[in-house]
Amino acid sequence: MNQPRDGGERTVAVILLGPPGSGCTSVGAALAAQRGGRSIDLAQRVAQHLGVAEASALVAVGEERYREVEAAVAVQTLQALEDGDVVALGSGCLGRAEVGAALAGARQRGARVVALTASVRRLAYRNGLDAPRSVALGNVNHVFTQMLHERDAQCQALADGVIDTTHTSAQEVAQALSSLPQRRDRLAGV
């Protein structure tokens, strides 16, 4: 990562990990606005690369192609990080070895990695899966819950710290993150 742009104190890059609905995009935008840095949303970059709408990108190109492009864009993004950048990385690409290597490289250059999490109920709500109990949604909810547990564990294992967003706004989480220590210690109490 580069030296501070204004010659002042270094503002570390922050990489946000989390399952769908944990708040990576909204927290990333709020934190970047507070710090005056760039907000980089991986899902948005992937959709732009694919030439499709972000909301339907995964469906438009299929999961295999989406994940392939997502991993390539994630690696490129992590390798080009600058001080002050805030990256909403999410969790879909974390199983790819090349992304793990790029994430490790970013950490070695001083980036902080924070996992966002929330209760399964809140994540289901944020993803539109909060309909009253329905036999038709039973399997979808089961698969979603399994995926959340797997990705949440993966995110937390890679992170310097974890923040539960169940009962907080993006601005509150960004405020908590705005005072990140400049050293790469574990984030106690965050």
Automatic annotation (TrEMBL):
One of its GO terms (molecular function) is kinase activity. Keywords: Kinase, Transferase. Pfam families: SKI. The keyword Transit peptide does not apply. This is Shikimate kinase.
